[in-house]
Structures are given as C-alpha cells and as structure tokens.
Design brief:
Helix content is about 35%, strand content about 25%. With about 290 residues, the chain is an alpha+beta fold. The chain folds into 3 domains: about 5-55, Uridine Diphospho-n-acetylenolpyruvylglucosamine Reductase, domain 2; about 60-170, Uridine Diphospho-n-acetylenolpyruvylglucosamine Reductase, domain 3, CATH 3.30.465; about 180-285, Enolase-like, domain 1 (2-Layer Sandwich), CATH 3.30.390. The strands form 4 sheets. Strands 4-5-10-6-7 form a 5-stranded antiparallel sheet. The protein is globular, with a radius of gyration of 19 Å.
C-alpha cells in the first residue's frame, strides 16, 4: 500500500531537526532507520503529514569507548556490531546486535530509533536496562538524561516528551570482574525476540556482588528482574546458584500470548534464557 502524502525534510544539524519538530508538532514524525515507521505508514496505521529524516545529522552518529561508552543515537547496528572496543566494553550489546534481523536491517537500523519506538520484542531495551544506561535527549526545554529504568513506560511508549529527540546513550564500560551477555529465542522470520534476556554481573572474591537482569519479548515492555538479581547476589555464581536465581525470572510480569507463543510458554522461556545469559555473563566475569 502507498503511504498518505507527506512533506519531507532532511536537516543536517540537530538544531535544525529540533526546530522543524517544534514547528510542525504532532503532524511530524522523526525518520531514523524507518523499519517500524515506514511499514506503519504503508498500512495507513500512521499518517504523518511531515517526515523529518535525521540521517544527515552527523553529530548523532559515532561510538566512543573510554571508561564510559557513548553511542550516538543514529549509529547503525552494523557500526555497533563491528566495533571491537565496544564488544570488549559491553559483550551483551555485541551479543544482541549480532542477533538483530539480517544484514540489511543492521545496515540501516539505528539504536536511537529502536529505543524511541520501544517495540516490546526489540533486543536493545533489555541490554540498556542490564547495563544501567542513560538515554540522553534534547528538546525545546534543552538537554536531559533519562535513566534506562525510567525510559520504557508501556507498550510502544517511553518517557520522551513531545518535541524531544534521542541524541546518545551512555553507560560504564565493563572492568575487571564484570561480565554481561544476551540470549534470546528469536522469531524464525522476523528475528524479533519471543523471549530475550540480558544479564550483567560483577564478581569479587569469588562472589557475585552486583547483578542486573532484564527481559524483553515476554511482556508489553522490557523489565528488570529484581527477584533474580536479589537471589544471585551474595552467591558464588555456580550453576546451581544461577538455576535457583533464574527460577524467579518472569515473576510479577504481565505476559503476552499470541500465535507464536502462549503466555505460559513465554514464562517458561524467561527462566531458560535468563539462566543462559547469566551463565555466560559469569563466565566472562571470572
């Protein structure tokens, strides 16, 4: 189907993009990779009268790794996938990006676009929750940072205010004794997560002293798994300890059910993939 008519703008700076977004308000949509917006427009599920394409805004691209990781919002999955320093600084992100779609998707899709869309089956929301990232945005009231824990509010909903654009994502690089991993059960066609789990652990003197786990694909939004985290902290990170902690995965979550997987199946897979992600993260931390 052909989208409804729209005006098209391609700003070359963030300031220009913000001005256009403020000028056109609710009539405008930001175009990043386009994998979610364009299909919705073709199905007439979305009919913006203005598209603001930010692919020419160079200041929104790039990766910096120096104790802290900073990733520009318009950085593509492919750029993330092939950044060796980033893979060392955050293995979970490298795991997740390698499992996103196919090469065409990774060449076009962007981290900022994915986070702003907040698809409940997207991979990256779980990762940024597990690494306790900050999402930096800018809008008519200036720049601000949103903690990953506060960013995803509901299905396809975020803490972004009208007129705001994601500019970058930051988080601490992993150091000695720290490890992370991502594991998922992908939909065989779309490669979206039917269930995905991201895990971060810190090991000191043979004990788990910090742990963050997040699940995506199972519910209306990616969610931290506090019961799993609390159960693992203070243990030796053994296979038995991980299994006991992972048994709490999915507790308190509102599970989705559809033709691909029932809510009961998703709940069971939360435990399976949380266990896999934790075991890999601990292996990397030792």
């Amino acid at each position: 189907m052909i989208p409804a008519p729209f005006d098209y703008y391609a700003p070359t700076s963030l300031a220009e993009a913000l001005t256009l977004l403020q000028r056109h308000g609710d009539d405008a949509k930001i175009l990043a990779g386009g994998h979610s917006l364009l299909p919705a427009m073709k199905l007439r599920l979305a009919s913006p009268s203005v598209l603001i394409d930010i692919n020419k805004v160079a200041e929104l691209r790039g990766i910096k790794v120096n104790g802290t990781v900073e990733i520009g919002a318009m950085t593509t999955w492919s750029a993330i996938e092939h950044h060796a320093d980033l893979a060392k600084a955050c293995p979970a992100m490298a795991d997740a990006v390698a499992l996103i779609g196919d090469i065409q998707v990774r060449n076009r899709g962007t981290i900022g676009g994915s986070l702003a869309h907040a698809d409940p089956a997207a991979d990256m929301p779980a990762v940024i929750l597990a690494v306790d990232a900050q999402i930096h945005v800018e809008g008519p009231n200036g720049p601000r940072a949103i903690a990953a824990a506060d960013f995803f509010t509901d299905m396809l909903s975020t803490a972004l205010e009208p007129g705001e654009i994601i500019t970058s994502i930051t988080f601490d690089s992993h150091g000695a004794g720290e490890g992370s991993a991502y594991a998922k059960f992908p939909h065989p066609a779309s490669r979206y997560a039917i269930v995905g789990a991201a895990a971060y652990v810190k090991m000191e003197n043979g004990q788990v002293t910090a742990c963050r786990v997040a699940i995506t694909g199972a519910g209306p939004k990616a969610e931290r798994q506090s019961a799993v985290e609390q159960a693992l902290i203070g243990t030796d990170g053994s296979a038995d300890a991980v299994a006991a902690a992972a048994a709490h995965a999915g507790e308190g979550m509102d599970m989705l059910g559809d033709i691909h997987a029932s809510d009961e199946y998703r709940r069971a897979m939360c435990k399976v993939y949380t266990k896999r992600a934790l075991l890999k993260a601990i292996e990397r931390a030792r």
